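User: Sequence recovery, please. Input:
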């Protein structure tokens, strides 16, 4: 039986980090460092922390995820999303250990008709996507073992996200307008954590797939409007009030940062290489909501 792992997780209160802490707790010692212990806005401060801990695996679950805010603070977004992941990758390579890092559908411009595959050329529309793409490239340049997992539309029962916002607004208002022309896969943080655990197990069992970039989202697709409808239906099923929903175009809801219209990610490579697949987005939503009761 493999010895317990010493896993360094950056980020403490984020959705993915919170889910990882629940899912991976039986895999070994989790060293979870929040902003007070590991400040990704100061990338060089990461090196002595990693060297002192000497982990067996690094999982970078921290990020600057405020998409619109990133437009007005690009230096901070790039420090956290680009430079810091590169430092983690360099330190992991020096230790001879893997790095798992999470990226985003926002590295693409949304112009493709079908689902995006890993080999498609990125073309981010804003600072957030650009900073995440730069992070991917910095990790690859370090030359060590790494998994870059691109995901999309992350939600959970913690933090700030579309699910919790919709649950509140649908019960507060009589009518709500939701964008209906952006298509993607809502992905529960619990799904991401479960898949991460499965990937770690494959690595520990000595049967990993190829290292590199992979897409990891729930299967299936919907729009933000469709996601809101599903959330609203569960409110109705629970006997709670629910606003009337109106579909609108992205052009009717302008934001500082442009969003890709097509965020569908093809996750078949992760299944082929690592034998890891994800549930349908609607099934995962119901599983998530079952934990709320």
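Assistant: Recovered sequence (293 residues):
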């Amino acid at each position: 039986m493999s010895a317990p792992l010493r896993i360094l997780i950056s980020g403490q209160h984020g959705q993915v980090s919170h889910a990882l802490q629940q899912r991976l707790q039986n895999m070994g010692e989790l060293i979870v460092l929040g902003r007070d212990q590991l400040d990704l806005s100061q990338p060089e401060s990461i090196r002595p922390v990693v060297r002192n801990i000497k982990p067996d695996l690094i999982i970078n679950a921290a990020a600057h995820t405020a998409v619109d805010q990133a437009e007005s603070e690009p230096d901070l977004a790039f420090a956290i999303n680009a430079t810091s992941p590169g430092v983690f990758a360099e330190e992991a390579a020096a230790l001879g250990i893997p790095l798992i890092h999470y990226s985003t559908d926002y590295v693409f411009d949304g112009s493709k008709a079908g689902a995006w595959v890993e080999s498609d050329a990125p073309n981010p529309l804003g600072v957030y996507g650009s900073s995440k793409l730069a992070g991917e490239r910095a990790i690859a340049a370090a030359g060590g073992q790494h998994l870059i997992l691109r995901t999309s539309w992350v939600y959970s029962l913690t933090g700030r996200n579309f699910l919790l916002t919709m649950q509140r607004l649908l019960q507060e208002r009589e009518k709500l307008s939701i964008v209906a022309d952006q298509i993607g896969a809502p992905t529960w943080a619990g799904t991401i954590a479960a898949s991460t655990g499965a990937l770690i197990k494959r690595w520990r069992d000595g049967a990993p797939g190829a290292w590199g970039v992979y897409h990891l989202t729930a299967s299936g697709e919907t729009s933000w409007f469709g996601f809101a409808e599903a959330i609203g239906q569960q409110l109705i099923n629970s006997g709670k009030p629910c606003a009337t929903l109106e579909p609108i175009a992205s052009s009717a809801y302008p934001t500082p940062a442009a969003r890709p219209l097509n965020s569908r990610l093809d996750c078949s490579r992760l299944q082929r290489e690592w034998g890891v697949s994800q549930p349908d987005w609607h099934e995962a939503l119901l599983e998530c909501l079952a934990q709320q009761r």
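The first helix runs from residue 15 to 23.
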